[in-house]
């Protein structure tokens, strides 16, 4: 398989997981905040790609752990912890096997 040429981008998203309302004359809203890192990449130019593997680590250059596989170009990594910096890479898979890692992207989770 040829060297993988994937361009990746990273967006760290903070979303309210739910709103809780107090049952009194005045309503108080409490936000439960969760974080997600949204990864996007360009399709590989290699022929016959059937899936992409997404890997994550906590140090630049790895080691990385595979966190998901599938035929998609965007992944929302919701299993991240506040105060941690993560590093992600992607590989492409075809009948010839798995490519090498894409360029690494990183993000600090607030």
Question: How does this structure look, described?
Answer:
This protein is mainly beta. It has a single domain (8-108), classed as Sandwich (Immunoglobulin-like), CATH 2.60.40. 0% of the residues lie in helices and 55% in strands. It is built from no helices and eight strands. The chain has strands spanning 8-21, 29-41, 51-57, 65-70, 74-77, 85-94, 97-98, 105-108. The strands form two sheets. Strands 3, 4, 6, 7 and 8 form a five-stranded antiparallel beta sheet that branches. Strands 1-2-5 form a three-stranded antiparallel beta sheet, with no helix packed on it. Strand 3 (51-57) and strand 4 form a beta hairpin. Residues 1-5 and 13-26 have low confidence and may be disordered.
As for the CATH topology, it is Immunoglobulin-like
State the low-pLDDT regions, or none. 1-5, 13-26
DSSP strand content: over 45%
> What's the alpha carbon Rg, rounded to whole Å?
18 Å
| Overall average residue pLDDT | 78
By DSSP, the count of extended strands is 8
Order of helices and strands: EEEEEEEE
Tally of helical runs: 0
> Rough shape?
elongated
Structural class by SSE content: mainly beta
The assigned CATH architecture is Sandwich
Helix percent reads under 10%
Query: CA-to-CA gap between the ends?
Result: 38 Å
The tally of domains stands at 1
CATH superfamily: Immunoglobulins
CATH class: Mainly Beta
